[in-house]
Specification:
By secondary structure, the protein is α+β, with helices and mostly antiparallel strands. About 20% of the residues lie in helices and about 35% in strands.
Length: about 130
C-alpha cells in the first residue's frame, strides 16, 4: 500500500520565524507560504533530496492543529505523509481493518493539489498519518 514518504510535518507557533530559521540556519530551500483555508492551516515545504518537511501553523478559528499546539506550545512533529497509488482502495482496505479514517472519509485536496486522507493517531501508535494519492 505505502509508496514514498512524501513529507514529515511539524506544527509551529510562528510559520515565518520557523521558515526563516530553516533558510538562514540550515541553508534550506523553503517554499512560500500557502494558505489552505479548507484545512485550517498555512504551510511551507522545506525541500530536500529525498523528501520534504512541511511546516504548518493554524489558520482561522477552527484549525485542526490548534489543540495540538496548545498541548505543544513550542511546536512538534505533527504527522507523516505517505504516498499511495489509489487512495480509495487504500481507504477501503484500512476501514475493513478497523482503522479510523478522519473526517467524512472522503479525500480532500491537499497542498500539492492531490487527494489526501488522514488516519486516526490512536490507530498508529500515537502518530497521525496522512495518505496522498500520487
Ligand atoms: C492537507 C493539507 C496539508 C497537506 O499536507 O497537504 C496538511 O497536512 S494539513 C494538516 C492539518 N490537518 C489535519 O491534521 C487533519 C487531521 N487532523 C485531525 O482531524 C485532528 O487534528 C485530530 C482528530 C487528529 C486531533 O484533533 P484534536 O487534537 O482536536 O482532537 P483530540 O484532542 O480529541 O485528539 C485525540 C487524541 O489524539 C491526539 N492527537 C491529536 N493530534 C495528534 C497528532 N498530530 N499526533 C499524535 N496524536 C495526536 C490527542 O493528543 C488526543 O490524545 P489523548 O491521549 O486522547 O489526549
Ligand atoms: Co501534510
Amino acid at each position: 500500500m505505502l509508496g514514498r514518504l512524501n513529507h514529515v510535518a511539524i506544527a509551529v507557533p510562528d510559520l515565518e520565524v520557523a521558515a526563516e530559521r530553516y533558510r538562514a540556519v540550515l541553508g534550506a530551500t523553503v517554499t512560500e507560504p500557502q494558505a489552505l483555508p479548507d484545512h485550517g492551516v498555512t504551510v511551507v515545504f522545506v525541500e530536500v533530496a529525498n523528501t520534504k518537511t512541511e511546516l504548518l501553523e493554524p489558520l482561522g478559528e477552527a484549525s485542526p492543529i490548534a489543540a495540538f499546539l496548545e498541548k505543544n506550545p513550542a511546536g512538534g512533529i505533527h504527522h507523516m505523509c505517505y504516498e499511495v497509488e489509489d487512495i480509495i482502495e487504500a481507504r477501503d482496505a484500512l476501514q475493513v481493518n478497523g482503522v479510523r479514517v478522519l473526517g467524512d472519509g472522503e479525500p480532500k485536496t491537499g497542498a500539492h493539489g492531490k487527494p489526501v486522507l488522514f488516519l486516526h493517531p490512536k490507530d498508529f501508535d500515537g502518530t497521525l498519518i496522512e495518505l496522498e494519492q500520487v
